[in-house]
From TrEMBL:
Keyword field contains Amino-acid biosynthesis: no
Name of the protein described by the UniProt record: TIGR01244 family phosphatase
Cofactor: FAD
Pfam families linked to this entry: BLH_phosphatase, Pyr_redox_2
Organism, as annotated: Acetobacter estunensis
Domain Beta-lactamase hydrolase-like protein phosphatase-like: 4-111
An example Gene Ontology biological process: sulfide oxidation, using sulfide:quinone oxidoreductase
Keywords: FAD, Flavoprotein, Oxidoreductase, Quinone, Transit peptide
Recorded coiled-coil stretches: none
Length: 559
């Protein structure tokens, strides 16, 4: 499969086969767009089969089929724009010859690029786009190229259709079924991210951690399949990528956290090859297990960046599962395992450190604190760290056979630019009510919230009813009625079959869900493994539906 590039981020190809999809992923594409209807010729792979192959390869797939000789429908142009803005990397479009995919791209660029540049891009890719010139010029002249949808008003606009946004929406709709809610989410796939550690440990298959976004979207909510470009809290408006304007009475920001892969020099170019992997991405977690199965000697490096990060225990979970597998294979003694942590402690809550240190010693792991990964040379298999001892900081190069990277993580750009962020860029909210400190009609949930709790799905489970109750109160013109206690759960997978289940709240206060005689969270147990592997996935799905099991929030008393 040889793509023909119109730009650095969009290419076209003739009809792909199922076998081609893996090659598309290897070439660095992040999404596939199909512009061809099913059944045009004998033996043509169906859209459904192609979508399944794309999912297995870790790619986003979007079908926008239209007949040869027809002009792409407006809705399809809009959908391509969503994919281009949300893919996070190059996109490949295909049809019978590639021409329809190129036409779709051309109309999506009208008014953004000069017509002559669009034609030149088509010529470079071997496609004559001149029949589109009248339409391209018309849209460029009228300024309709963004295909902006008219302004729409909702009681609640939720930015983000991940765990936080969906759970808050479902919880609110259970309490106020007539509430009008818009959820802005560009992806057609929802991921159970807590399962990626187990994918990297060879326990789950990656496909088990993904599901169609439509299957978890609340039926009474409007799904806006776009990305947010701007929030104006003064006018109470959210601007999305296609130019649409969403007005709100209450805003819930559930946009997650941005993985800043580019902050480490050389990392984006070598991810997924040369022994460089990360369980923080769906398409890379299987490569982690592939490396664990192959490595039998040399240096295996595991990194943790400065806080904040999602699931602060995940960097070392990957390491423990790898060590356990190597020990079972009898090769652990031949592998030098090193944990490079930019912080100064193995875990942020001291009560769980002794149990973890037992495994560190048992596996023979070398701990390097205040050691931050700053560069990766994949071809040479060299990682560069900045290590600080006292007042002295030096750069250290370390060779590796395997490098598991956790990237630095920052607040999404539109939050930082909205005036709603705190000093770190995350939404400035009261840690108890999750209401913005100055904007009473703005709330945050999950990783976007500027709170000190662990950024985990378990935290979202406790936050969702708090946000739902307080948003309902805000819609009624009343003050918040519920408090979040900072609860976060972190199942620290120390070996296949055992977990240290760390549960704690604000200030490191221990907050076990079950009595200690049933589950001792400060020691590795098989019960905690059972909960992580078999109980938490279905519990997560119920959370997305608004079912609140053992998460009754504290009520604010006003006497």
């Amino acid at each position: 499969m040889t793509p023909r590039y119109l730009t650095d981020t969009f290419a076209i190809a003739p009809q792909l086969s199922i076998a081609d999809v893996a090659d598309v992923a290897r070439q660095g594409f992040r999404a596939i767009v199909c512009a061809r209807p099913d059944g045009e010729e004998r033996g043509q792979p169906t859209i459904k089969d192609m979508e399944r192959a794309a999912a297995e390869a870790g790619l986003t797939f979007e079908a926008v089929p239209f007949a040869a000789g027809a002009t792409p429908p407006q809705v399809d142009v809009d959908r391509l724009n969503v994919v281009l803005k949300g893919a996070g990397g190059p996109v490949l479009g295909y049809c019978r010859s590639g021409n329809r995919a190129a036409q779709l791209w051309a109309l999506a660029q009208a008014g953004t690029l000069p017509t002559e540049d669009i034609l030149a891009a088509g010529h470079k890719a071997g496609v004559d786009l001149s029949p589109l010139v009248p339409l391209l010029k018309q849209e460029a002249a009228t300024g309709t190229t963004s295909h902006a949808s008219p302004g729409r008003r909702f009681d609640v606009v939720i930015v983000g259709g991940g765990a936080g946004g969906l759970s808050a929406a479902a919880s609110l709709l259970r309490r106020r079924p007539r509430t009008t809610i818009a959820i802005v989410e560009p992806s057609d796939t929802h991921y159970y991210q807590p399962g990626w550690t187990l994918v990297g440990g060879g326990v789950f298959k990656a496909q088990k951690t993904r599901m169609p976004e439509a299957s978890v979207m609340p039926k009474n909510a409007d799904w806006i399949r776009s990305t947010v470009t701007h929030i104006d809290p003064d006018t109470r408006e959210v601007i999305v990528a296609d130019g649409g304007v969403l007005s709100y009475e209450v805003l819930i920001i559930a946009a997650g956290i941005t993985l800043d892969w580019g902050a480490i020099a050389g990392l984006p170019e070598t991810l997924g090859r040369n022994g460089v992997t990360s369980n923080y991405r769906y398409d890379l977690a299987p490569y982690t297990w592939e490396l664990v199965e192959k490595v039998s000697h040399g240096n295996a490096l595991f990194t943790q960046p400065p806080m904040p990060i999602k699931c602060a225990g995940a960097p070392q979970k990957a390491m423990y599962l790898a060590c356990d597998a190597w020990r079972k294979r009898g090769v652990l003694d031949a592998i030098n395992v090193e944990f490079d942590n930019a912080g100064g402690a193995l875990f942020g809550v001291q009560a769980f450190v002794p149990a973890l240190m037992n495994y560190v010693r048992d596996y023979g792991i070398a701990l390097q604190f205040h050691s931050k990964l700053v560069a990766v040379d994949g071809e040479r298999r060299i990682a560069t760290f900045e290590r600080t001892t006292g007042d002295k900081t030096e750069r250290v190069e370390q060779s590796f056979e395997m490098l598991h990277v956790v990237p630095p993580q920052i607040a999404p750009a539109f939050i930082r630019e909205s005036g709603l962020g705190d000093a770190s860029g995350f939404v400035a909210v009261d840690p108890g009510t999750l209401q913005h400190v100055t904007r009473q009609n703005v709330f945050a949930i999950g990783d976007s919230a500027g709170t000190s709790n662990a950024k985990t799905a378990a935290a979202v489970r406790k936050q969702a009813p708090v946000v739902a109750l307080n948003v309902a109160a805000a819609l009624d013109g009343k003050p918040p009625v519920a408090l979040y206690d900072g609860y976060g759960g972190c199942p620290l997978t120390v070996e296949r079959g055992k977990i240290v289940l760390a549960e704690f709240g604000y200030g490191g206060k221990l907050m076990p869900t079950l009595p200690r005689w049933i589950l001792d969270g400060q020691h590795a147990t098989r019960l905690a493994w059972f909960l992580k592997k078999d109980v938490m996935p279905p519990l997560y799905r119920e959370m997305l539906r608004g079912h609140e099991f053992m998460v009754e929030p504290e009520k604010i008393s006003r006497t």
